[in-house]
Sequence to fold (259 residues):
Amino acid sequence: MPGAREPRAEPCWADLLTSDLGSAVEFYSRLFGWRFDDGPEARAEGYLPAYLDDQLVSGLVHNDRDSGAPDVWTTYLNVADVHAAAFAARLHGGKIHLKPVEIPEQGTLAMISDPEGIGVGLFQAFDAGDLHSARRHGTRIWSELHTKHFDAVARFYREALGWELSTVSDSPEFRYCTLGQGSEALAGIYDIAGQGPEAQAGWRTYFAVDDADASVALAELLGGAVIREPQDSFFGRMAVLHDATGAEFSIIQPTRHRA
Fold:
């Protein structure tokens, strides 16, 4: 993992906590074209790096079936000082779930949650800017926080992590803000308080695809499920899916003006 460049606590990485490594390898290798470091040593360590061609793009983390934790995509934020960021998170109403720990030759990792209890990782000395801008099939293209406590969570990210938030919409029907503005935006916060009890708060990971409809059909063939059918938006044609073990993620076929 390369070194950081002017981190703004922006999403820099996402990996999958999964209870079935074999199923996840089959699903994502065929859906996104990922190649996995799936040797005995990686399996024993419980972490399988994922590559697109020779570029590291993600990873799979083994989820013990007895842990009680659901299979889920985890978002990580690129910070200049992980110790200071973790302290600030606790100071502003969040919690520290994993104190900063050194990852050999990579950097320092911590896990926190915001005042709503939504977990997110902090990582120092990691730069995935090229992955975010590539918009190639199978690369992470966007990260978005869905919250039922919009004001408190937005305040937390402003005060604890220094986010400069730009309002996209502030109507009762649609409240949304971004870290940064317009084409320079790096993440979003979406108010889902009015969407009913079935709406789940948490970070959402979006991946670029060449053809949203074909990707949805393939995901279903591989044992996944469609949560939201493909639909057009300003950003491109989008869909929300479950993988074969129930982890939720989204896909976007980017429009030309976002390329």
User: Anything to note?
Assistant: Residues 10-124 form a domain with the 2,3-Dihydroxybiphenyl 1,2-Dioxygenase; domain 1 fold (CATH 3.10.180.10). The chain has a mean pLDDT of 91. The CA atoms of residues 49 and 59 lie 4 Å apart. The radius of gyration is 17 Å.
